[in-house]
Each structure stands twice: as structure tokens, then as C-alpha cells.
Amino acid sequence: MGKVQLFEIRLSESRVVYSPGEPLAGTVTVRLSGSLQYRAIKVSCVGCCGVSNKINDTAWTVEEQYFNSTLSLADKGVLPAGEHSFPFQFLLPASAPTSFEGPFGKVLHQVKAVIDTPRFSKDYKCNKIFYILCPLNLNDIPDIEQPNTMSVTKKFNYKLVKSGNVILTATSDLKGYIVGQAIQLRTDIENKSGRDTGPVVASLLQKVAYKSKRWIYDLRTIAEVEGSGVKAWKHAEWKEQILVPALPQSILQGCSLIHIDYYIQVSLKSPEVSVTLPIYIGNIAVNRVPLSPSRSIQHIPSAVVPSAPPEEEEAAGGYHPMDNVSIPTKSHSQQQPFSYAPGLSFQEIRVDSEQTGSPNHPTLCLSTGATVPYYAEGNVVPVPTASSLILPPEYSTWGYPYEAPPSYEQSCSNANSSISNGN
């Protein structure tokens, strides 16, 4: 850098995360080996969102700006050799959206400084990224505390001439969750056929929509749980839970170019049938109230009145009563623990400060699973990628476990053991 040995921005108290409406203060530090002539020294605070049609492309096709303020720290003059500090302060707008970074776009907030030198001389520039977190209070969403239920009936053929149907019903205990919370899921499957179904799979899905010249949708499987299939003429129940890993919140208030949605999808592999429950991921948990009997999703056994089978089945095998059974869980697929940037520590997880990496990178860097981008228009073939979504520092300080949560059967077994030991 020639005469300029150091040119950097330091935020007060080494903060990197701010809330909308907060003051942001810091200093611009310049260290010179000799005198430097300049026309101006300026610092700017900028917030914007950019979206591209290509993965990890730095050339944005669409951009929107949220704020852009500039302060003049020094007018035309000469800086002598040595170290100089220029304090500054900005007031972040109350409408600034939460920081976000994905493969097709980002919501970026940063402080930029420039030493404007005389003509024919090189200007000096530096920047400092900071993060804004506008917490999403799930209690502000109507009916968020209500169970989420959806059911679908699928008719299918098998053995050439036979037919049957399957009824798939999925219910979650809430419509919104926070990081570290378990999604309590119950699935009912009525197999009204003489053919066994394939495995049942419950997935937590993320869909990020980027508004460029056309909408680009990035679909990711965040977590997945698989249960066994259902035998012929059985009414099965499957109770499971999915742990919510560190994820960006559902709503980027104030941002019109990036939309984030989450879903719970429960599906059968054979016959192909699925139900999808939209949910919210927020920062402030739902205030639970005791559920009345009518609102509780706890399964109350009731008499099952089977309907008559299709004529083909009746002719072949007569009447088939349906038995109630429980589905065992076969496998869990949850996210791995967090990956941290160097030199930072949190309440429950500490990090080796000797790890290599750039201090400009965000603290939490988490890939949220396999992704398949697809487009609203055009003949584009989806290509799976492994691009990461980047979370701001302190987006969550919750210590994510190294193992998947216990299944419903394991939880009941542990509870029974505790009761037995107590007696």
C-alpha cells in the first residue's frame, strides 16, 4: 500500500450484530510511513440487496438499496506519518432488513471508507461488514399456536386389475418454531388396499425465492426422518420429531427481492402421495397455552369403521377389516453441528482461535443441505448444488447436538424406565 501501512474500520466494542434503529459507531484508523496528501477522507454506511441469475455470481442483475449515508471525516490536507483515528457514528434505519446470504443473492450491510487522493494518485479503500438482526416474533403471526393439519387421499391401481386407496394425514403441534425446538409430528396412514405401501418420509424443507429478471427458487432438504411402510389393510400411526437447526428466519421484513419459506412434507414412496404443511421459523418462541381437549393433537383411539373395499378386492378376497398399528422409525437425517469462523466464542460452544480463515467471513457458516434451484420460466434443467447459506454471527447461540433427537418410541421407553426406577 506504499505509504499507507494500515487502513481499516473498527466498530465500537468489536460488535458485528446490530438491531434496526440502533446507533453504529466506530473509528477509521490510518497508519502512514510518510506524509500523505489527500482531498478527502470519507466513511459511508450502506445497506442493500442484490440478486443474480447464476450461483455465487458477484455481478448482480437486480439490486435494491435500503440506506446509504456518508460522512466526511477530513477535508483536503496532508496527513503526517504515524497513526490517525477518525471517529464516526451512524443511526441504522428502523426499516433495515435482516442480513442474509444465499447462492443467488444477499442482504448486505457494510461500512466503507475511502481516502480520496489527488489526481493521478491511487485512492485507498476498505470496508467492514456488519449484520442486522430483526427478530421475528412468532406470536405476532395469527393462529401460530394452533396445530397444523392436512390430509390427502390417493387412489391407485396394482396387479393390473386391482385398485385401492390410501389416506395420508399429517399434523404438527404448532405452525411456528425457533432454532433448537423440536417439531412434534404425527402421521396417520390408512392403507385401504391389498398392497403394502413404501416407507413414509417426513422432511423439513426450505424454499428461498430470488426475484431477478425471473423468479429463481432454491429448494433444500434441511432434515429428514424415515419410517417403515404400512401393511395391506392397516391403519398406522407414526409419531416423530424433527429438530430445527440454525436457519434464517422466515420473513425478511423490508426486503422485496428475497423470500424465505419453510415446509414440513410427509410423503409415501409407493404409492406416490404427499402432504405439505407450511410453517414459520422465527427468533421468539410461541407462547404456549394449555391446549383444550378439542385443540390437542394427542391421538385419542377411536373405533375405526372400515369402508367397503373396491369391487375388485371384494370379489377376490371379501371384506378386509383394518387393524391399527404403529410405524417404527428407520432413520434420522439431521444437520451436522455448526461451522464457526476463527477467533470467536459463544456461550455454549467454543472455537479454536488458531483455525485458518478470513476474519471478514460471518461467524456461522452452515450448509442447509442439498439444493435444487429451479426457475419460474424457461427450459432450465435443475442441477443439484452444495452451496451454503451463511448466517450472521449470534444468529443462534444454541448448542446443536451431535446426534438426532430420540424417536417417539425411545422417548416413551425412557419415560417408562424413569417411572419404574421411581417406584
From TrEMBL:
Belongs to the arrestin family. This is Arrestin domain-containing protein 1. GO terms for cellular component: cytoplasm. GO terms for biological process: protein transport. Residues 302-337 are annotated as: Disordered. GO terms for molecular function: ubiquitin protein ligase binding; ubiquitin-like ligase-substrate adaptor activity. The lineage of its organism: Eukaryota, Metazoa, Chordata, Craniata, Vertebrata. Residues 162-286 form the Arrestin C-terminal-like domain. Residues 326-337 have a biased composition (Polar residues). SUPFAM superfamilies: E set domains. It comes from the Eukaryota. InterPro entries: Arrestin-like_C (IPR014752), Arrestin-like_N (IPR011021), Arrestin_C-like (IPR011022), Arrestin_domain-protein (IPR050357), Ig_E-set (IPR014756).
